[in-house]
Amino acid sequence: MSEKPSVLFVCLGNICRSTMAEGVFRSIVEKPPYKELVGRVDSCGTGAYHVGDRPDSRTMATLRANGITNYVHRARKVHPSDFDKFDYIFAMDDSNLDRLQHEKRNRPNTKAKVMLFGEYSGTGSAEVINDPYYDDGNHGFERAYEQATRFSKNFLKDIFPDLESA
User: Catalytic residue numbers?
Assistant: First the structure.
């Protein structure tokens, strides 16, 4: 692993779940005690459906409602070089995890640890972040926010066990 761990969040289109996770994670690591301890943070999709688009308006509304007002992103598709650039690549669900693991098998000497973000659920079993894109209303986005927050905090406690979280 590099001196500062780097993290990539991945869903299908890179406009809902992975951007939610990135926005939440960035908001946490931009403050003490994690400030300046984490390297590159990004998100992308396994599909190219929304390349160049901004995050879904409901993702942005949920982030803003929770005090995250400085998040900016344009969707992109996962690239083979991501497996060399990032220490951790977190899939939001099993389907995207399968795609990422397949890509990693084609690149066996890369540094990235590919796993389900929900391995850090804190409940004793892995959780997926369901895609809220087709949901009516904001409930799915609020649930994704809650999960991204919980998983982020648990991941940071795991890689920085000696730090007191804020």
Answer: 11, 17, 131
